[in-house]
Write a structure and sequence with these properties.
Order of helices and strands: HEEEEEEEHEEEEEEEEEEEHEE
Number of domains: 1
Strand content: over 45%
Number of strands: 20
Distance between the termini: 33 Å
Structural class: mainly beta
Largest sheet: 18 strands, antiparallel, barrel
Amino acid sequence: MKKSHLLTSALLGLGLYSATAQELSVDAMIRPRFEFRNGFQDVAPKDAEPAAFVSQRSSLLLKYTDSKITAFLDFQDVSVWGDRPQLSANDDVANQTGFLVNQAWAEIKLGNGFSTKVGRQLLSYDDQRILGGLGWAQQQRTHDVALLRYKKSSFKLDLGFAFNQERDGGNNFDTQFSSRGLGAPIFQYKAMQLLHASGKLSENFKGSFLFLNNTFQNPLVEGDSTPGTSSRQTTGIYFDYSDSSFTVTGSGYYQFGQFNDAVDINAFQASLFAGYKPSSGAFKLIGLGAEILSGDEDGTGGGETKAFFPLFGTNHKFNGFQDFFYVGRHANNVGLIDIHLKTVIKTGAKSKLIGFVHNFSAADAPSGFDKNLGTAVDLVYAQGITPYANVKVGYSQSFLGDDFADARTGGNPDSNQSWGWVMLTIKPNLFKWKKEAAPEAK
């Protein structure tokens, strides 16, 4: 009798559940990119052989939604053409960016504007200066995090919490976390808490506030079996004003706390960009911007650093596309002042040309070191092919300051610091299924 009641209840539950609206979407991304590097991220030394290769991001994305739950899976493979033999049963074990579950999260509506989003996911806010998805890189930046979210009208509030471990086995008696990967002491945190609040203050003006705390495991020192932790805090604001003719964006952040158990942080960032959008003609945007990231002439000397580091942002988007600054480097360094011009020119019905000119200088520098870090020119041509496919072609050239180039190469820089690339992006929808809610469920 009890079993029949349980079966009846389960069937009724399934019937009610299936009566709600549901949607399933399956999408793909194939993104090969050819690059010719003679000065990208690192300053090219004289007589060094330029690099040329093709990398590719291949993704399969599945998204399910109903009235209460959204679930998302992103299966991704990042490879370089030729890094796997033609006849191979497995990926090269040395290829750290091979096939993986890039994202896996679920968001549950809790009612009254509240929801929770839990799992491995992108954290992307505002202009992505502090937290971004790293869309340019073939491998994206994702976080294992739980978000408590609230939304009412244009106001949004996110509270985030993360706690990282390497594995479950062997963690029976402690929670020590050994960070791994590139830039581990800077990027691979043990724990994180974030608060992000944003909203519209008028029809054309929106702003946000961010507070971020990252806790890092101190390195293991001989004779110390239980090293402590160090916490770094970043807080600040972002704003965006835009109408039919003008756009103005800006940000300001302060960084404090500890770089490690022996070094404190006291650093800041500020930026402002103003652009004019002509109502006619080929020019669609003409703008001037500036950004300063504080620096420190002696790095972590004296037990304190004044060098700001933009943490988990999409740093390729800022300070020149050749990535000489803040893409895994330039931490605890002389800082940066970046004054730049930006133009967007419409070249066709589905094409445009984007151009940047940057002038770089050090925010702080040792005595005798030339603060002029150089000038860079970035050009990107984008051509739409179909609604789900496009091709982009880019070229960048830098004219670096002598002291900066010598410091990066040991006094042997190439006079030609250039980088070119061609990228094809195809993002088709493979399958979409939608079921409307039954009338009694609406």
